[in-house]
Design a protein that fits this description.
The structure holds 2 protein chains of 2 kinds.
Chain A: H1 2-29, E1 37-39, E2 42-44, H2 46-53, H3 55-69, H4 77-93, H5 98-122, H6 127-146, E3 151-152, H7 156-163, E4 165-166, E5 169-170, H8 171-189, H9 192-201, H10 203-208, H11 213-239, E6 241-242, H12 251-261, H13 273-292, H14 297-315, H15 317-322, H16 328-340
Antiparallel strand pairs in A: 1-2, 3-6, 4-5
Helix pairs in contact in A: 1-13, 1-16, 2-13, 3-8, 3-11, 3-12, 3-13, 4-5, 4-6, 4-11, 5-6, 5-11, 7-11, 9-11, 12-13, 13-14
Chain B: E1 7-18, E2 21-32, E3 36-40, H1 47-54, E4 62-67, E5 70-72, H2 77-83, E6 85-88, H3 100-105, E7 111-112, E8 115-116, H4 118-130, H5 147-161, E9 165-169, H6 177-192, E10 196-200, H7 204-210, E11 213-218, E12 221-227, H8 233-241, H9 243-249, E13 264-271, E14 275-282, E15 287-291, H10 298-306, E16 313-318, E17 321-323, H11 328-333, E18 336-339, H12 343-347, H13 354-366, H14 374-387, H15 404-416, E19 422-426, H16 434-449, E20 453-457, H17 461-467, E21 470-475, E22 478-484, H18 490-505
Parallel strand pairs in B: 3-10, 3-11, 6-9, 9-10, 15-20, 15-21, 18-19, 19-20
Antiparallel strand pairs in B: 1-2, 1-4, 4-5, 7-8, 11-12, 13-14, 13-16, 16-17, 21-22
Helix pairs in contact in B: 5-6, 8-9, 9-16, 13-14, 13-15
The chains are: A mainly alpha, B alpha/beta.
Chain lengths: ~350, ~500
């Protein structure tokens, strides 16, 4: 058991180091950053805020990881968030129960994934093009659902998902933690993880070995759609309304970035959901940190880009081989990476 | 040793070490003007290391290189090209999306007023290629031509750039017989022009067809240089791998697994445009060899049998029971296995470990909901690593880092782990070193003795003769002859292919 723990730790080490460095840097410029306090049985503080604000990207990154592991990409997740937010808002305002609303919203997200999956797996369209279709069309669909307006609602149950708390943690954090653990368990305790990696590395060889490639590919995009649906519900519940134009806007890019920062290759194959979640948290920590540190907002994006470039350089194979003698832990991470799976 | 005036290129006492291994140990190599010199050895013998030292891709640790009697020290491949040493690799490394002319003159395009003079470039390209009996539309993209043509373009570029020494690293690996013949015509012509040509290949027939001298390396050491005409095949193999293994490969035995009811019965089985409908019976404990020239439908036969391409005519029966073999999954359910010809694209899953590659087919058959426990995976992997002598540091090493022969064994292990009853092997010994070659031949024989039914496709007739109980001969995507018993000889196979040819001609 300890050895399994150690290999996981080794795989996640670069992300953990990057995250700690960022947190330390922020806490030096903004002393109150690490403070946590409990009010009304709920934790408050900047760290909690990062986990909470980062929820949509964390969720998208979970699905995106699996899609990228199949050597695919899902550009439509931001738009699917908007569709699902709109669907949730319109169902709840038209008098459906919370349970029905959530069920239908999740189903819509999965359906979007099926669409993407069929384009990729059955019609053999390149994933970037196949999912671009829904990325462009999705916002239109969302606007049709909301009929062009921002659809607001006050159902307390739905709002609770966005701003309530459970066991001291904000609901969005609880949702992504539980969902992330479930997905990670599902892929690693079953053979899904290995089969998905095999498809990502060599689809043809996997098919010839009897792997049911089309079904698994569609399943990967379905998972991504499901993640986007949950993210869409949280985003809508947070602002108590569905904004077809802005919900999830550009988040697909943050999700892809989170996966990359998490060390999963865009060429498919080896993946780690935990690392992608950490990647998403890193991105959110950078966002929050820049805001808190009081830099003029016009610098934000540039600083963010610089930090990300730095993290990616740390991960690049060339850097690793040139500085292998310095970075013993990273090298250990590289060799144990295979064992962790 | 020749006098230095005959030698266009001499490498003297070349040393090269990598961490933990000595890749080249004081190797001497002399290339004469106007000769084709085959450089042979098992995988890992040091052939490519020697070539890379000659072309400056590696820095040698010791020794001298003399070109035309003058000591040279190529710093990199460009430097070597400038000095006169050009190299053409198996995977053509030109730019497929540029035109033929652009590829020929890349980096040295004729200019006019500072702009590339496309007309002049195309004209010069046509002139250059006419020396190679090639009439191409030089403005078309290189990718629109076959690999063989691309290969010739690469040679033309290398010769035009360098002009003294031409190194051909497995140039024929993906060419068919006609293309090989064309390539060899060009090689002979270049030889007549006085170029020194180094030829690396796994195909021994080609060595005998084209080369004047042979140098053999083993484990980084020079075994010797001989005149091709004075070295018989058996001795050559012995030089490459040592005596014992050589004897084994050539120990053809008689096979008498005739009689008994066929277990597998394919009737009128085929797929339009790929392979004409054929009848095929396979008994338990029988190896059916499939022979034919490249493009005769051998791989297509295998793919239809395995369901990689669905058959559109005919029926398949196992023990008299009609079965559906419309997809690899369906075939695997009937305990079929298939080692494809192109290991890299159809066989290995490169980034995954040896262990995962071995359990892949078994896991796929069980379905994702029933994972094979890690302990069981380790047991299976270790079992087959030991049984097939797969040389790997450990079972967790990514399979892409293994040599070709060991990758092939791992893919065999993948199928053996599913306990197949019908195994299709497409060129199982292609492009692997002679030692692994012998082991795979032994494995095929032991599987047959255990009662498995096998279909083996191979271009190496002697190998087919050694283990097949029957041989099917293919020609133009149709099964044209079946040889059994006494008639299984390389000579008979060639006759059968030729006879089919004549029938077609008449």
């Amino acid at each position: 058991m300890t050895s399994i723990f150690r290999t996981y730790l080794a795989r996640l080490l670069p992300q953990l180091i990057a995250l700690s460095a960022i947190i330390i840097a922020i806490s030096m410029t903004f002393p109150g950053f690490l403070n946590l306090e409990i009010q009304n049985g709920r934790l408050y503080g900047s760290l909690i805020d990062i986990l909470n604000r980062g929820a949509p990207v964390v969720l998208l990154a979970i699905g995106m990881t699996v899609v990228i592991a199949t050597k695919g990409i899902d550009l439509s997740v931001g738009a699917v968030m908007a569709i699902c937010g709109a669907v949730a808002a319109s169902f709840i305002t038209s008098g459906h129960s919370l349970f029905e609303t959530i069920l239908i919203t999740l189903a819509v997200g999965i359906l979007c994934g099926v669409w993407n999956g069929i384009l990729v797996a059955v019609l053999d369209i390149q994933p970037i093009i196949a999912t671009l279709v829904l990325m462009v069309a999705g916002r239109g669909i969302a606007q049709l659902v909301t009929e062009g307006a921002i659809l607001t609602f006050n159902d307390p149950g739905l709002i609770f998902i966005g701003s309530g708390s459970f066991a001291g943690l904000p609901m969005p954090v609880v949702v992504w933690l539980v969902f992330g653990v479930l997905v990670a368990l599902l892929v690693r305790q079953s053979a899904l993880g290995m089969l998905i990696e095999a498809i990502g590395v060599n689809r043809q060889a996997s098919t010839l070995s009897g792997v049911l490639t089309p079904v698994l590919l569609i399943a990967a995009y379905m998972l991504s759609g499901l993640c986007a649906a949950i993210g869409g519900i949280i985003a809508a519940a947070d602002i108590r309304g569905a904004d077809a134009n802005n919900a999830g806007l550009w988040l697909e890019l943050d999700a892809i970035l989170a996966v990359v920062v998490g060390g999963t290759s865009l060429l498919g194959g080896r993946f780690s959901i935990a690392a992608s979640v950490l990647g998403a948290i890193i991105i959110q920590a950078i966002n929050t940190g820049i805001l808190l540190s009081g830099f003029p907002p016009e610098f934000n994006l540039i600083i963010k880009a610089a930090i990300i470039v730095f993290i990616l350089v740390l991960q690049s194979p060339r850097f690793r081989t040139s500085f292998a003698f310095l970075a013993f832990p990273r090298r250990a991470a590289k060799t144990t990476e295979q064992e962790a799976k | 040793m020749q006098t230095s005036s005959d030698n266009i290129l001499s490498a003297v006492r070349i040393d090269k070490g990598f961490p933990g291994t000595k890749a080249l140990d004081k190797v001497d190599f002399h290339l004469q003007r106007g000769e084709v010199h085959a450089l042979l050895g098992e995988n890992g013998a040091g052939k490519s290391t020697l070539i890379k030292c000659l072309t400056g891709a590696y820095r040698r640790d010791g020794g001298n290189i003399l070109l035309d009697g003058v000591e040279v020290d190529p710093r990199d491949t460009f430097d070597a090209q400038r000095l006169g040493i050009g190299t053409v690799y198996q995977e053509v490394n030109l730019l497929p999306n540029l035109s033929v002319a652009e590829n020929l003159f890349l980096g040295r395009q004729p200019r006019r007023f500072g702009m590339v003079d496309i007309r002049a470039m195309n004209r010069k390209a046509r002139e250059l290629l006419s020396e190679y009996e090639l009439k191409l539309d030089v403005t078309r993209a290189l990718a629109s031509y076959s690999v063989a043509i691309q290969q010739v373009v690469a040679i033309a570029r290398a010769v035009d750039l360098s002009g003294k020494v031409l190194i051909l690293d497995e140039p024929t690996a993906s060419l068919d017989a006609h293309e090989v013949a064309m390539l060899f015509r060009i090689v002979r012509r270049l030889k007549a022009r006085g170029l020194g040509i180094i030829f690396i290949t796994h195909f021994l027939e080609q060595v005998y067809e084209i080369s004047d001298r042979i140098t053999v390396l083993r484990n980084g050491r020079l075994v010797g240089t001989r005149n091709t005409a004075e070295l018989d095949r058996r001795d050559l193999i012995a030089m490459m791998i040592g005596r014992e293994l050589a004897a084994e490969i050539h120990a053809a035995e008689a096979h008498a697994a005739e009689g008994g009811e066929p277990r597998y019965r394919f009737r009128n089985y085929g797929r339009r445009g790929r392979i004409d409908p054929f009848d095929l019976d396979v008994r338990a404990g029988e190896v059916v060899g499939i022979a034919g020239l490249l493009g005769s439908g051998r791989t297509e036969t295998a793919e239809v049998l395995f369901g990689a391409h669905r058959a559109d005519s005919g029926t398949a029966e196992i023990d008299g029971r009609r079965v559906d073999l419309s997809s690899p999954r369906a075939a695997i359910r009937e305990k079929f296995g298939f080692c494809p010809e192109d290991r890299k694209t159809d066989g290995i899953v490169g980034d995954l470990s040896v262990r995962e590659n071995i359990v892949l087919a078994l896991q796929a058959r069980r379905g994702w909901t029933r994972p094979i426990s890690r302990a069981e995976q380790n047991r299976l992997a270790d079992l087959y690593i030991r049984a097939l002598d797969i040389r790997t540091a450990d079972r967790e090493k990514p399979i892409k880092l293994l040599s070709g022969g060991n990758q092939q064994k791992a893919i065999l292990a993948r199928w053996l782990a599913t306990e197949p009853e019908f195994l299709i092997l497409d060129e199982p010994t292609r492009g692997i070193d002679v030692g692994a070659h012998a082991e795979i031949v032994r494995l095929i024989e032991s599987l047959r003795e255990k009662g498995m039914s096998l279909i083996v496709i191979s271009s190496e007739l002697e190998e087919l003769v050694a283990y097949s109980t029957r041989i099917i001969v293919l020609r133009d995507r149709a099964h044209v002859a079946e040889l059994g018993g006494e008639r299984i000889t390389a000579h008979q196979i060639v006759e059968a292919i030729a006879a089919a040819n004549e029938r077609r001609a008449s």
